[in-house]
From TrEMBL:
Belongs to the iron/ascorbate-dependent oxidoreductase family. The keyword Metal-binding applies. The keyword Iron applies. GO terms for molecular function: metal ion binding; oxidoreductase activity. It comes from the Bacteria. Keywords: Iron, Metal-binding, Oxidoreductase. Residues 118-231 form the Fe2OG dioxygenase domain. InterPro entries: DUF2086, Oxoglu/Fe-dep_dioxygenase_dom. This is Proline hydroxylase. It comes from Aliikangiella coralliicola.
């Protein structure tokens, strides 16, 4: 894991505030991706397994980790949180929301737990031919951190085709805009969980964001999601 390549400077801030997402290239090594993929088979690591067809979420399988999280996921969750929390707090001010995100993830989780959100939310997803993930938002209770991070664990082209990560943004009085995010194995993308503030001529306005995955045409695609709030 390369900590040095995340630098949450003004470019990250303006990207997130303009588009609601920002790509972090080469966040994980191929070796780390392969290790994370292998975890998918280890039942004892997970608290719940979701067959997406059964819930109408799409087609494919995802598994929620249980505590304690694998070390690499725990450390990514803490370090990404502490870098994103200051941006989250600038956003809440711009959106005139009455909530302050603590500096460290542990304190944030205490807030979640006090609201009955106690279950860990980091997950690994596996898609095979014809699988897909419908547009959605990952909200699991009243408390939601405004960012989440998605990691590509498979290599497009050699391992699968299709299966693009898709974001839709909905601004007031506009038709929906779509962005297709092409990630290589090991890349990650920070996305807005629910909505983000965008500067307009008459002040900031709220843009809603959803994410999903287009159908896989060939092969197998694994991804990992780090969501910072816990679930009810
Ligand atoms: O498979 C993907 O790229 C999307 C994963 C996802 O929905 C998530 O991490 O919340
Ligand atoms: Fe998601």
């Amino acid at each position: 894991m390369n900590q040095a390549d995340i630098c949450f400077d003004s470019e990250v801030y303006s990207g997130l505030s303009q588009d609601g997402f920002h790509i972090l290239p080469g966040k994980l090594s191929v070796e780390e991706c392969n290790q994370l993929r292998l975890l998918f088979e280890k039942d004892e690591r997970f608290r719940n397994t979701i067959n997406m067809t059964r819930y109408g979420f799409g087609q494919g399988t995802y598994r929620y980790f249980q505590y304690p999280l694998p070390t690499i996921i725990q450390s990514l969750r803490e370090s990404l949180y502490s870098q994103l929390a200051p941006i989250a707090n600038q956003w809440t001010k711009r959106l005139r929301l009455n909530f302050t995100y603590p500096e460290d993830h542990q304190t944030f989780l205490q807030n979640c737990h006090a609201q009955g959100q106690t279950k860990p939310t980091p997950l690994i997803l596996r898609y095979r031919r014809e699988d897909y993930n419908r547009l959605h938002q990952d909200l699991y209770g009243e408390i939601a951190f405004p960012f989440q991070v998605i990691f590509q664990l498979s290599q497009p082209g050699s391992e699968f085709s299709g299966g693009e990560l898709v974001l839709t943004e909905q601004a007031p009085r506009r038709q929906t805009k779509v962005s297709v995010i092409n990630l290589n194995q090991g890349d990650a993308v920070i996305i807005a969980t629910q909505y983000f503030p965008r500067k307009g001529s008459r002040g900031d306005y709220r843009v809603q964001l959803k994410h999903g995955v287009s159908q896989i045409h060939r092969g197998e695609r694994f991804s990992m999601g780090i969501i910072f709030h816990d679930a009810k």
